[in-house]
Amino acid sequence: GAGVSQSPSNKVTEKGKDVELRCDPISGHTALYWYRQRLGQGLEFLIYFQGNSAPDKSGLPSDRFSAERTGESVSTLTIQRTQQEDSAVYLCASSPKTSGGRRETQYFGPGTRLLVL
Amino acid sequence: AQKVTQAQTEISVVEKEDVTLDCVYETRDTTYYLFWYKQPPSGELVFLIRRNSFDEQNEISGRYSWNFQKSTSSFNFTITASQVVDSAVYFCALSEAIGGFKTIFGAGTRLFVKA
């Protein structure tokens, strides 16, 4: 596809369950970001991947959150033992290779809306 | 520390009015990037502009224009002759060249354009 895709589009889960969210970046984009957007609020950075470099995990809110990326393609964000405060839209973005200090434009997916009951 | 402040939570205008969305940022770095994104009711964020800290030239793209002033740490966004389709939440964002690739977003300004 031409854009960033995310699945599922909506997820309802019970408190304490684990969830896995998926992101397919734009083909050829080496950088991938995950963000969280709570209702009516701005975006919170979670994690950044670029190629084979160590990911920047500085935004992950707790050890219940983790993310993996297979090479320069699909990424999954896993939330273990979900809590009600995890309810939010989780957005994924990708961008072309970032070299040095340059920041490329991020292209966002439609997001996964997570509701923890 | 990095910080982006969008003091205007909501703005309501009538079609064809001009409107300016404010963005003030804080950074410890001399090299940084500023962004504006639009989030329409559909929810998908749309990139509008990227500006690096060494380029203070103002930019115009159709009805959109941006005023970058390092002296006041501001990167304001003006829509001229607003249209109903401009109704959305607009986010300003900052990314420093050091300290990783974290991008900090402001809380957003919700713009309502009434016909």
Give a topology summary:
The complex is a heterodimer of chains A (about 120) and B (about 120).
Chain A: E1 5-7, E2 10-13, E3 19-24, E4 31-37, E5 43-50, E6 65-69, E7 75-79, E8 88-95, E9 107-108, E10 112-116
Parallel strand pairs in A: 2-10
Antiparallel strand pairs in A: 1-3, 3-7, 4-5, 4-8, 6-7, 8-9, 8-10
Chain B: E1 3-5, E2 10-14, E3 19-21, E4 24-26, E5 32-39, E6 46-52, E7 59-61, E8 64-69, E9 74-79, E10 88-96, E11 103-105, E12 109-114
Parallel strand pairs in B: 2-12
Antiparallel strand pairs in B: 1-4, 3-9, 5-6, 5-10, 7-8, 8-9, 10-11, 10-12
Account of the 3D structure:
The complex is a heterodimer of chains A (117) and B (115). With 117 residues, chain A is an all-beta fold. Helix content of chain A is 0%, strand content 45%. Chain A has strands spanning 5-7, 10-13, 19-24, 31-37, 43-50, 65-69, 75-79, 88-95, 107-108, 112-116. In chain A, strands 2, 4, 5, 8, 9 and 10 form a 6-stranded mixed sheet that branches. Chain A has a 4-stranded antiparallel sheet with strand order 1-3-7-6, with no helix packed on it. In chain A, a hairpin with a 5-residue loop joins strand 6 and strand 7 (75-79). The radius of gyration of chain A is 14 Å and the shape is globular. Chain A starts with a strand and ends with a strand. The model of chain A has no long low-confidence stretch (mean pLDDT 90). The mean pLDDT of chain B is 90. Chain B is mainly β and 115 residues long. In chain B, strands 2, 5, 6, 10, 11 and 12 form a 6-stranded mixed sheet that branches. In chain B, strands 3-9-8-7 form a 4-stranded antiparallel sheet, with no helix packed on it. Chain B has a two-stranded antiparallel sheet with strand order 1-4. Chain B is built from no helices and 12 strands. The radius of gyration of chain B is 14 Å and the shape is globular. Chain A binds chain B through residues 31, 33, 35, 41-45, 48, 50, 56, 58-59, 89, 91, 93, 98, 100-101, 103, 105-111, and chain B through 31, 33, 35, 37, 42-47, 50, 52, 91, 93, 95, 97-98, 100-108.
